DNA sequence: CCTTGATCCTCCAGTAACTGGAGATTGTAA
DNA sequence: TTACAATCTCCAGTTACTGGAGGATCAAGG
């Protein structure tokens, strides 16, 4: 299949597929006589893997590592497990940060009763040095 | 005061202060004879405002809008309130997304019992097309 | 007076992970 | 044949900084 089809099949943009090849997540696809990239079903699977990992928030370099493990079936999956654990911790930290932001934003919004900027709790709250 | 001091006072890097000037969040600072930027107390307040808004996750262009409201004391703060509400919604969406990721990551990690990559629930889970 | 170290200046490149577009081919269907 | 879709390569732009090179300036100590 050509690039458009694998892109559609995996919910990826054509340019992004080419980009993944460029940065080495996908191996350089063999080409047709006219130079078009040709993909096999295994490539779809690999691209699904990549998209899914990215969708879970793994960085490209982490995806690269996960693919390495995936490519070596006999390899101990310890590395993958560590990556996942660390990533999970990062995600949880982000959640906490966002929840703190959320509380502050709610506080700010409550302080605004719709007058002029001078009286506005949002503007005033942002101007205050303390959190 | 010079740039180093305002940077220290607000927890901002010197380069970042210059950057904020470049993109117009801070007005071009007057210069000393030798060309160094000179700041007043009001600039510290403004920079605090900017840092605080950025810390709450507002984008630079949103901060620009918030500053506009702040700079026009008689202006209705409706725009600021809208920005804050929309941003709050975005933050809440992000939280939900991250919580979904978290659940999936926990599920993946549970599926790994430390064997080879072939048996690994993490690798296997990523390879499956369904969420 | 001279040197040293801190601070400042401008300009520029790099980061992450794509995304979009220009300009040129190629493939295909009516 | 003619149109139109899909592909190719190359390159610039996005966000919000961050860091560094190379060079000027300033204050303090000897």
UniProtKB/TrEMBL annotation, chains A, B:
Residue ranges occupied by any HTH merR-type domain in the UniProt entry: 1-69
Organism the protein comes from: Qipengyuania nanhaisediminis
Keyword field: Coiled coil, DNA-binding, Transcription, Transcription regulation
Stored PROSITE patterns: HTH_MERR_2
Entry keyword annotation includes Nucleus: no
Gene3D superfamilies, per the entry: 1.10.1660.10
Coiled-coil regions, chain positions: 81-111
Molecular function terms from GO: DNA binding; DNA-binding transcription factor activity
Listed CDD domains: HTH_CadR-PbrR-like
Descriptive protein name: Transcriptional regulator, MerR family
